[in-house]
Amino acid sequence: MPSYGQFCPIAQASEVITERWTPLVLRELALTGSRRFNDIQRGVPLMSSSLLSKRLRELERAGIVERRPLRNARGSEYHLTPAGQELGPVLAQIGIWSERWLRRPIFEESPDTGLLMWWVRTTVKADALPAGLTVIHFRFAGAPEKLRYFWLVLPAADLCLTDPGFEVDVTVSSDAQTLTAVWMGDLPLASAVKSHAVELEGRRALTRSFADWFGLHPLFSAVDHPVTRPRVMSA
Questions:
Q1: Among 55, 155, 171, 207, which one is most buried in terms of CB atoms within 10 A?
Q2: Homologous superfamily, domain 113-222
């Protein structure tokens, strides 16, 4: 890795953890709980497989990540070492700081619905849903064809791009901008539903309790958003 040539601990840490994509790889490991290579890559979809492999090897050499073979299957998982675990609160605080001070409209381009749903699957509160299988169908108006429909199968939190063949309990229809704004805490869920920016169809008990089980971003939705830096721009 390139060196800043300084003894400063901040400079030395930056040499390891601020390489392009590295903070996002660490985010997937520390904040979203991804362990498998493919799961990590789903959180950084624009990152090539070869570069992800390279960054994981660099983090291994730095003592931040360790690779563990699976006991009863082929392949391996990536786990944070104690040094890597200590970075979790640091990354979370960087995100909170960014939400407070660097916020900018993110809707100049349509948000990636695949990435949004990959994260949403981790925040849906399965314990607030009825026992047994629950299938939630998400439909995004205006999204690319391949990233327009998603099926979330709970409680396993399996995210499918094609119909898994189970009866759908709830269908959530919106656009990528609106549902992202709701999930990030920029737009009140009740307001989005009342204005029909988010539409719900299906079992009445589940549509009425949507706010109880949908779940918002656990860190950023609670940040005090300054009115001088709106993420959702009014028409």
A1: 55
A2: SCP2 sterol-binding domain (3.30.1050.10)
